[in-house]
Amino acid sequence: MAQLDTRQKLAILADAAKYDASCSSSGTVKRDSRGGKGIGSTEGMGICHAYAPDGRCISLLKILLTNSCIFDCHYCINRKSSNVRRARFSAKEVVDLTLSFYRRNYIEGLFLSSGIIRSSNYTMEQIVEVARSLREDHDFRGYIHLKTIPDADPELVHQAGLHADRVSINVELPTVGGLKRLAPEKSATQIEGAMADVKTAIVDNKDARKKYKSAPKFAPAGQSTQMIVGADSATDGDIVVRADSLYGRFGLRRVYYSAFSPIPDASAILPLQRPPLMREHRLYQSDWLIRFYGFAAQEVAAAADESGMLPLDIDPKLAWALKFRGGFPVDVNRAPREMLLRIPGLGVKAVNGIIASRRWRTLRLADVARLTVSLARIRPFIVAADWRPVVLADRADLRPIVAPKREQLELFGG
């Protein structure tokens, strides 16, 4: 490997890290340095939740320790056989970069991942050393997210959790068959075993902290994972069901979805084109339906078409409502909260507003209109004091009426 200066390494390793979407900086404990001790913060003006247009968080220093790797996963640009320029940071260089960037107010925390060099344990040791040095040598109190190596020694993964706010282990692909085909050196059993160990450690730590206030925190922001979308033949239905299983079995805080990007000198078994980014967006919306709207994974999957794919032109909740119109219209003055949440166009905030308002008055259509952006989209699915969708409810061609209209956005629109 040629000798590179820090700026050159940063250019290579920051670019190599862009494919990892799971770098959210939310959900951790409050921690600051206003008392004159330490450096960094996770509250107030700390993590600022700045996101790129594609949804990726840009408030963290997001880099790889190295883009060299002993594995040869077909979908990965950093795979062993890939013809890319390689670079590697030392643990001290990452620590110095993080502190330097923080003092310049460029970043509010660190997201660190790595290719695997020498062995999984050696790589994990280097990752842990970065977090340890930041916390213990420099009293860094900002956010740290570490991507762990699934087949590393469990004690090393445990050490990562003691220093990091969040740890994550990527399941990589939605199906075991896809993982065997595209990443034969990785094991779904090892990945899930490591996730189970982290879950156990998080639960044990919460119990310990209830008994002993001095017990050290372990990954207070929990664990997350990421799935690549479009590299294998998994349908949206497969992905939604798999994500729901991961939430239930491992207590994940988030599942991230990353649309597959074609890479230079790609393997012949990979798709030639990337899936539409809208597919990634619809999967995130499906994820929200399961986590915040009371939908079961099978219900969301049922909104897909015969091929198992969610429609790209309408959101999953509208697709489900159009497919199961027998449950509508819903009376906004009488329906329980769980049914109101299933009305297309009504979010959690709007539903809370409806429930609060109807305690004092009978809601009319105009009252509902004040709580939502598009009344036309909602009308076919609700009953109010002065509204009943008699004609709309019976229309067979309802979709063109409620589907969002396509329009050209203005560059300088207000």
From TrEMBL:
Cofactor(s) in the UniProt record: [4Fe-4S] cluster
Molecular functions per Gene Ontology: catalytic activity; iron-sulfur cluster binding; metal ion binding
Gene3D superfamilies listed in its UniProt record: Aldolase class I (3.20.20.70)
UniProt keywords, alphabetically: Iron, Iron-sulfur, Metal-binding, S-adenosyl-L-methionine
Membrane-traversing stretches: none
CDD domains (UniProt xref): Radical_SAM (cd01335)
Coiled coil: none
Name recorded for this polypeptide: Putative DNA modification/repair radical SAM protein
Organism: Sphingobium boeckii
